[in-house]
Amino acid sequence: MTWDAEKYENWFASDRGQAALFSERRLLDLMVAGWPRRGTKLLEVGCGTGLFLESLWQMGFDVTGVDLSPGMVKAARSRFGNRAEISVGNGECLPFSSGEFDYVVLWTVLEFCADPGAMLREAARIAEQGVLVGFLNRWSFYYHSHGNAPQKTLGQGRWYSWPQMKRMISVNVERAPETARSVLPGPVTTWRNDQPYRFINSRCIPPWFGAFTAARVDFKNERPLTPIAIFPEAG
Question: What CATH number should be reported for the domain holding residue 75?
Answer without folding.
Answer: 3.40.50.150
